[in-house]
């Protein structure tokens, strides 16, 4: 307990020193005072003239974690978006295939002379649409 009080007493004269002024040479200068003075000089060299301001300190402390969280959020969003689009594309493709299958069945059952050609044209258009969608999907992948 005594050593703690003596350190507090020894550090008091250093608080009154102005920056850059050397302590007055006295016989009562202790090694603790010298150590404190050297630490002050060292900290001044690190910060050049003054310690960093609050915004600089905040940026230095939190810029990396904020960047990592933002990057993870963007990655997660893109992954969910890609998955959603993929499921939607598969659903659209299944719907088109069902429509094409139904129209082909109707074509097979058709007995009216002009109906077969009309249904065949509709089927051809739908098949073209499906092929275009597949090509677009392949182009996006590449």
TrEMBL record:
<protein>
    <recommendedName>
        <fullName>Inner membrane assembly complex subunit 17</fullName>
    </recommendedName>
</protein>
<keyword id="KW-0175">Coiled coil</keyword>
<feature type="coiled-coil region">
    <location>
        <begin position="86"/>
        <end position="136"/>
    </location>
</feature>
């Amino acid at each position: 307990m005594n050593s703690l009080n003596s350190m507090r007493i020894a550090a008091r004269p250093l608080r009154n020193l102005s920056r850059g002024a050397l302590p007055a040479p006295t016989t009562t200068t202790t090694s603790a005072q010298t150590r404190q003075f050297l630490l002050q000089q060292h900290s001044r060299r690190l910060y050049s003239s003054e310690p960093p301001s609050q915004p600089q300190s905040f940026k230095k402390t939190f810029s990396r974690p904020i960047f990592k969280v933002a990057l993870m959020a963007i990655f997660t969003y893109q992954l969910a978006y890609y998955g959603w689009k993929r499921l939607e594309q598969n659903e659209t493709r299944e719907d088109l295939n069902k429509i094409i299958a139904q129209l082909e069945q109707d074509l097979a059952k058709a007995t009216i002379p002009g109906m077969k050609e009309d249904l065949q044209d509709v089927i051809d258009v739908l098949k073209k649409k499906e092929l275009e969608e597949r090509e677009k999907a392949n182009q996006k992948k590449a």
